[in-house]
# Entry
Amino acid sequence: MSAPAPARALDLTLALVERHAPLGLADQADSQALPGDDSPHGIAYAAARRLGFVPTDAACLARAWQRQSERTGRFDLEAWPVEPADFGLSPDPGSPAFAPCPRALGLYAVLPSADWVGRLARAGVSTLQLRCKSGDAAARRVEIQAAVAAVQGTDSLLFINDHWREAIAAGAYGVHLGQEDLDTLSPAELAEIRDAGLRLGLSTHGYAEIRRAAALGPSYLALGAVYPTTLKAMATPPQGSARLGAYARLLRDRSLVAIGGIGAAQLPDIARAGVGAFAVVRAITEAPRPEVAAATLRHAWEQATRRAGRQSGP
# Structure
């Protein structure tokens, strides 16, 4: 049985939780989490668990809060850590980094086929991803080649989901990979993607995965899922717009894409969070008129980013 937490440490833990309640996920919270000691690390870890951060993310936050406190000379309950160095990250994208992409990728449409890619490229959507789920390798190669051909002569940037070798062979702009891909890719294979000049986008779902992905110097980081989505089974709960904002402040010098359950109604919160792009799937592919839906989303995003800029200005 563990010893009782020092009263002062518990009081500080509860105060930290109260001050940062918008970052909490009630259904994930460990309401019994206690600080192991009265250090910033011990208090911050317990507070993060009470706010519903998974243990690996709570550990990242605890280390960051400890470093922040040592750097500033005080444990400031108001100051949620947002400095890259406090998370062990370099403030620059890393070296050697993958080829850069625009900081503001805008509307990012995730699409199931080359035909869809062509339609949305002609409709003026700035960023596209082909998510081809065919189990037939030959058919997959043909689809990826067709998608690359479909964006020729347009301003659209095309990322290929998962299939990086085919993306290199077809001359795609970039590739998007998930955390599970990083589990299997060797350093030599990552170097092969980089040396081919492909832009690399990586999925993340919290602080621990952000640290892992950012250390590779990717072209952009995808942050999510922000809201509930039934498109795919998620190992982590929806993060919410408040956490998205915290991640964006930490990664403020990088290209960022919000993903998961996003439609027009969510764009004001997404823009205020400070990311430069948002990804959608069904908001376009299940719309009665996909091109019109895309144009509506682009217009709504322009309005939302203008308002967010005014709100954050002097």
Q: What stands out?
A: The chain has two domains: 7-83, 106-312. The longest helix spans residues 290-312. Residues 7-83 form one domain. The mean pLDDT is 93.
